[in-house]
Specification:
heterotrimer, A alpha/beta, B alpha/beta, C alpha+beta, B: alpha/beta, Beta Polymerase, domain 2, two-stranded parallel sheet, 7 strands, C: Cytochrome-c3 Hydrogenase, chain B, 2 domains, three-stranded antiparallel beta sheet, about 50% helix, about 15% strand
Chain lengths: ~140, ~140, ~400
């Protein structure tokens, strides 16, 4: 297994991209960091630059204006990098499926490693998803 | 004299159609040539707050409603304007009177293709750069 | 000789939510101009609403914004009920009270959220953590009443979807009782702390005349001395049957905006308590079947200001046109004057002070205009803001010696 990918599971630095979401998923992601859930005790941290990121969390229905930005962000991320789709919009475009401004779903644009469903997913669901992903990477020797 | 009467007196014959759905919801129509003067009177002289404008497409015309709010009484005035020319719709911009209208005029311009004459900064607000020219999402016949 | 530098902020930022893109034109430390580019969140909701029937649209507009996820559906159902003859004519008494309770609970959680983010921006991460800690019990109340922490789906045309059960009321009251000392603590922390005062005073000032010209709404306008509040001007729910007051400050700077929001939380608690006392028993839904042709306007005081919905119906089961105006649409535009003239370390704070529903940046990078070289990224701008606070603190303790 990829040594670098395995090293990544120790302390995940997360970069968060909102590609046309309604804020709910984004708030719940931030909520994971605040005292009740406190993800930072596991070394999971939100960071300001994608160049330091181990994982990218993507929320929202991809609209025409944010798709090129998102591709650029993914290019800048150091590889290997895990892409996590958070929330129903990122998974399936939800109720914006027929919108003129939302052309394609996220998995057609970037390789997605983990899907966390919910509108919005609860912080527990997000933490559970991350734990599952970490375990999977570790087992996958 | 309350604001309703002031509007009726000042604009007089310019008001085509006056309609009160309820005491707080007042709709009246003016010609599109008169919108600049009307907006100036409502905003500057009467001190109403500009809430927003909503544009829409009807079978026969394009329509813009300028919503003004009287925050002392809760009355809400909507000035209706019809633009018959659907090929090259144009109307005077009210942004020179107050800057608060800048964004909404840009939005109506890109969504419905109505040209605002005298707007200082008429460029795209919400849509992407690669959105096809001449396609307006809120027109009923757009292709996307 | 002046040497202009462009600072792009956006469109992605780790702390704010929605993406928005600012370009600051900087001369030395001063911000001389600002360009605001939005649309990274545009999902075509107004057009989608025309393809859904009246009940579905309530769910659609709920997903405009996650922080005010009761304001938009509320404004929408008010607009439809305006066609039907007005909220008071249609909706049962008990539902009016439930609507107001939900709306005010949402204001509490939204203001706490903003307070936390503002704290982070000036380098007081403790404020961030504490504010969000006290926000959790509010979300628990939501979960208890509606079944979800956000996106409550409480509003439907003619009433509300779920009732507040009798056994929920003591829990709700207890949560409010515990929140009051927390609000009091925040008020003390912000008003009495000399560093916060120095940092926020005279940052990002919006004068009364500017506020009128830019047509700003909500706490942003009230902090500039404009006396507006839709809850009082055009009462909806039961906001005219309970006692509360409109908070107004005159300075227009970030400090005034903070004070307005903190004091408003007290008013919200006050309103909810009175509603819980006065709430009558009865039906919660009027079972509206059809929407007649006509046009209606609904206005709600969202946490950020007036939320406006205009709807036109032609007698079918779908709206012909739904126009939505979120409060930030007016407030964010006013950043253009509020940030210009300030220093660059105030910029991040000023842009956040209107409580925009937006996400400011991740790749906020400073570009040197002639060479187009990036010299600073987004995180650094927040850091710059935090360093300024640090310096102020230092200066304060030096003079104290």
């Amino acid at each position: 297994m990829d040594f670098k990918l395995k090293a990544l599971t120790k302390s995940i630095w997360v970069f968060h991209v909102s590609a046309g979401s309604c804020n709910n998923c984004d708030i719940e992601i931030l909520d994971c960091l605040t005292p009740r859930f406190d993800l930072e005790r596991f070394g999971i941290q939100l960071i300001g630059s994608v160049r330091h990121a181990d994982a990218i969390l993507i929320t929202g229905a991809m609209n025409r204006k944010s798709v090129p930005r998102m591709k650029k962000i993914y290019e800048q991320a150091p590889k290997p990098c895990v892409v996590v789709a958070v929330g129903q919009c990122a998974l399936s475009r939800h109720m914006f499926r027929f919108s003129y401004n939302v052309k394609e779903p996220l998995d057609n644009i970037l390789p997605v490693d983990l899907y966390i469903p919910g509108c919005p997913p609860r912080p527990e669901a997000i933490i559970d998803g991350i734990v599952k992903l970490v375990n999977k990477i570790r087992e996958n020797k | 004299m309350d604001i309703k009467d002031k509007i009726r007196e000042k604009l007089g014959a310019k008001i085509i159609n006056w309609q009160e759905n309820s005491p707080r919801r007042i709709y009246f129509e003016v010609k599109k040539e008169d919108i600049f003067e009307t907006a100036k009177f409502l905003f500057k002289d009467l001190g109403l707050r500009f809430s927003i404008a909503s544009g829409m497409e009807n079978p026969a015309s394009l329509e813009i409603l300028y919503h003004f709010s009287n925050d002392n009484t809760g009355e809400f005035y909507s000035v209706r304007v019809h633009i018959e020319d659907k090929k090259n719709p144009a109307i005077d911009s009210i942004t020179p009177i107050f800057v608060g209208a800048e964004w909404i005029e840009r939005e109506i311009w890109e969504m419905l293709g109505i040209n605002f004459i005298g707007h200082p900064n008429l460029k795209r607000l919400l849509l992407a750069e690669d959105w096809p020219q001449g396609q307006y999402p809120l027109r009923h016949n757009h292709e996307s | 000789m002046s040497h202009k530098v462009i600072v792009p902020i956006g469109p992605y930022h780790p702390l704010q939510e929605e993406p928005e893109f600012f370009q600051l034109y900087v001369d030395g430390e001063r911000v001389v101009d600002i360009d605001i580019i939005i649309g990274y969140n545009h999902r075509g909701i107004e057009q989608l609403a025309e393809t859904k029937h009246f009940d579905q649209v309530a769910f659609l507009v709920e997903r405009i914004c996650g922080i005010c996820s009761s304001s938009h559906p509320y404004a929408y159902v008010l607009a439809v009920e305006d066609i039907l003859g007005g909220e008071r004519e249609v909706v049962p008494e008990r539902a009016l009270y439930i609507r107001t309770i939900i709306d005010e609970l949402q204001r509490l959680h939204s203001h706490l959220l903003w307070l936390g983010l503002a704290g982070h921006f000036i380098g007081y991460n403790t404020v961030w953590m504490w504010a969000w800690k006290y926000r959790e019990p509010v979300l628990d109340c939501f979960e208890m009443i509606t079944g979800n922490r956000q996106n409550y789906a409480m509003f439907k045309i003619g009433g509300v979807r779920r009732d507040i059960k009798d056994e929920d009321i003591p829990v709700l009251k207890k949560a409010l009782d515990e929140l009051v000392p927390a609000i009091e603590m925040f008020r003390g922390a912000v008003m009495d702390d000399p560093v916060i005062k120095m940092r926020l005073k005279e940052a990002g000032t919006l004068t009364k005349q500017q506020a009128i010209d830019w047509c700003v709404v909500g706490p942003t306008a009230r902090a500039s001395g404009i006396n507006i509040d839709i809850r009082r001007d055009e009462p909806y729910g039961v906001t005219d049957r309970v006692n509360w007051s409109v908070i107004i400050e005159n300075d227009g700077d970030v400090f005034a905006k903070t004070i307005v929001r903190i004091l408003e939380m007290n008013e919200s608690v006050h309103i909810i308590r009175q509603c819980l006392e006065k709430m009558p028993k009865g039906k919660i839904d009027a079972d509206i079947k059809d929407v007649p042709p006509g046009e209606g306007i609904g206005r709600v005081e969202a946490p950020r200001g007036e939320c406006f919905h205009y709807i036109r119906s032609d007698g079918t089961n779908r709206p012909v046109r739904l126009k939505i105006r979120a409060p930030s649409f007016m407030n964010v535009a006013s950043d253009k004057v509020a940030a210009v003239g300030g220093t660059i370390s105030d910029a991040a704070l000023t842009l956040a002070a209107v409580d925009p529903c937006y996400c400011c940046t991740a790749r906020l990078a400073v570009i040197d205009k002639p060479s187009n070289k990036k010299i600073m990224n987004g995180w650094d701008l927040v850091k710059l803001s935090q360093e300024k606070t640090e310096k102020l603190k230092q200066g304060l303790s030096d003079t104290g010696k």
